[in-house]
Amino acid sequence: MTENPKHSLNTTPESSRPSKIPKTQDHSDQEEEDKQQQESSMSKNPRIQRYLVAIEYIGTRFSGSQQQPNCRTVVGVLEEAFLKFIGQPVSIFCSSRTDAGVHALSNVCHVDVERISKRKPGEVLPPHEPSVVRRAVNHFLQSEGDITVIDVRCVPNDFHARYKAQERTYFYRLLSGSEPLSTFEKERAWHVPEKLDLYAMQEACKVLVGHHDFSSFRAAGCQAKSPIRTLDELHVSEAPPTPFFPSITEKKQTNSSTEDSHACSRKPEIDLPIDSFSKSDDEVGSNSITDLGFGIRRRHRCYVVTARARSFLYHQVRLLLGVLKCVGTGELTTSDVERILNAKTVTAASPMAPACGLYLGRVKYDLPQDA
């Protein structure tokens, strides 16, 4: 992808706003696919129990979530663990596809299991309790070291992890500051050496939230029939860098800083800076090493972007982050973001953010109560 300077985006006048898209067009391409996929994946065998399985994983050593030949994938590792548990192959269907290097605080999949006796082959036994499935699969995953089952429940045989999802929430972490990235944060966040303007990034988010044609934030290879999506939430806030264990002195400094910010803030609508959590060498002055004490790392400022929608286009979140980062560094303005959105071509957007800072945070369902 080639980066376009902000002054070269002349597709739309600065004063124009993104055009409104009729709500009826949102996800129309997915509804037909939903029905076909649900019918094809529905288990016809009443002896088979379908389980909904929530998993967390560090994406660094995975070549994405979907099964691929000769690659280590989330689905592949899970299927191997289930094979060891029940003694027969299974097929696992993920709610959300994540790329290589992308992490998940909670991704969800479903799997059909027929419990057959190992002592008497051919004898079908009652389904395992969800708690048994969780413990057993985690037992066979423990050697992997970067994936864990965090929840399991029984669902009807027509419940599809992907197509029953009502919304998905992603988080993206940026660490700002000239200090080299901590060993604990490598492959866990996007390190941006420049300072970031939080208020400018929040204003840019307002342009992108809502129902739009997101062609400018749709990577080549996207298989969705329509580029129209509804972005229900896009927000950036400052958070403590992790891991962080504040001393009593630092806690007092934080409380004092917060009180001062409340008293003199000129922009009360934005999140308060977490000053004492993230003292960088640029902020604590020339005597920073003496101020912090020998052997104490100068921390970065940590920013978290939250993106929530029913579904996303291919690489949409990472392309959105690429633009927001450029707004934060001053390379782009809010007007530039409007022009990029209206351009309806991915070549207008800034380079895509790296995968390492992206986390699938939650997949929301309307789960049946009697499952």
TrEMBL record:
Checking InterPro entries in the record gives: PsdUridine_synth_cat_dom_sf (IPR020103), PsdUridine_synth_TruA (IPR001406), PsdUridine_synth_TruA_a/b_dom (IPR020097), PsdUridine_synth_TruA_C (IPR020095), TruA/RsuA/RluB/E/F_N (IPR020094)
Residue ranges, compositional bias (Polar residues): 7-18
Give a yes or no for keyword Transport in this entry. no
Recite the UniProt keywords alphabetically.
Isomerase, tRNA processing
Report the Gene3D superfamilies cross-referenced here.
Pseudouridine synthase I, catalytic domain, C-terminal subdomain, Pseudouridine synthase I, catalytic domain, N-terminal subdomain
Gene Ontology terms, MF aspect: RNA binding; tRNA pseudouridine(38-40) synthase activity
> Which Gene Ontology terms describe the biological processes this protein takes part in?
tRNA pseudouridine synthesis
EC nos: 5.4.99.12
Record's keyword annotation contains Isomerase: yes
Q: Which SUPFAM superfamilies match?
A: Pseudouridine synthase
UniProt region (Disordered), positions on chain: 1-45, 239-265
Residue stretches of biased makeup (Basic and acidic residues)? 249-265
All copies of the Pseudouridine synthase I TruA alpha/beta domain together span: 54-163, 204-366
Q: Which reaction does it catalyse?
A: uridine(38/39/40) in tRNA = pseudouridine(38/39/40) in tRNA
Q: Which family does it belong to?
A: Belongs to the tRNA pseudouridine synthase TruA family.
Q: What name does the UniProt record give this protein? A: tRNA pseudouridine synthase
Natural source organism:
Herrania umbratica
The lineage, from the top, is: Eukaryota, Viridiplantae, Streptophyta, Embryophyta, Tracheophyta
